[in-house]
From TrEMBL:
Keywords: Signal
Origin species: Cecembia lonarensis (strain CCUG 58316 / KCTC 22772 / LW9)
Protein's UniProt name: Lipoprotein
Keyword Signal: yes
Highest taxon above the source species: Bacteria
Entries under PROSITE patterns matching the protein: PROKAR_LIPOPROTEIN (PS51257)
Cleaved signal peptide residues: 1-23
Length: 196
């Protein structure tokens, strides 16, 4: 039993030494977000499909198949340098402090033009299965402020009471007080039928 643990301990110590010895040589990439846009997409929850299709309001799909695609125009001032065992980071020049989602319509108890981010969940890819979506803070920290991801998604985790055409937009607020707002996107939100 002791002999099996010794190689694991040695490998762990060697990896720590190699990481610490090369960390000074790593060069992180530095970027800024110049623009953000939204596009409604149709996805296939539970079907294992890793892509989305264009959304068409005329189809009147229920909200459970709506996935909003967030496109971030990230301009890289410096690219990360990958040398040896180094794993540099992608770092934002001006961090996004908060993101808010708005609609011109009320959504349950949330009135028009009030922040809807409390009822949305985020994902880094199109085919994220239910149960693996993340909260806004984690999405901001790992996919907006410290990654080269330029496309992520959000879904509503609540059913609207009535069918209505919503004009949805997002506001990205930066640490320095500036902000970027997406164009408004008209999306027909239709309640999903809940079977009991």
């Amino acid at each position: 039993m002791k002999t099996a643990k010794l190689p694991l301990i040695v490998a762990f110590l060697l990896s720590l030494i190699s990481i610490s010895s090369c960390s000074e040589d790593c060069q992180d990439g530095l970027f800024e977000i110049r623009d953000v846009s939204l596009e409604p997409r149709r996805w296939f929850p539970g079907e294992g499909v890793d892509e989305t299709e264009p959304w068409d309001n005329a189809d009147q799909f229920p909200i459970v198949v709506l996935k909003m695609e967030i496109k971030m125009d990230k301009f890289f001032r410096t690219l990360p340098v990958f040398e040896g065992n180094c794993f540099p980071k992608y770092l934002i020049d001006k961090k996004v402090r908060d993101v808010k989602v708005f609609s011109n319509q009320s959504f349950g108890e949330i009135g028009p033009l009030q922040d809807l981010s409390s009822i949305v969940l985020f994902s880094p890819r199109a085919g994220t299965p239910f149960g693996q979506f993340i909260e806004k803070r984690e999405w901001l920290d790992f996919y907006v402020n410290e990654s080269n991801f330029t496309r992520t998604y959000f879904v509503f985790n609540r059913n609207p009471e009535l069918q209505a055409l919503h004009s949805i937009f997002m506001v990205f607020e930066f640490e320095d007080g500036s902000s970027i707002q997406t164009e408004r996107v008209d999306v027909l939100l239709t309640p999903a039928v809940i079977r009991q």
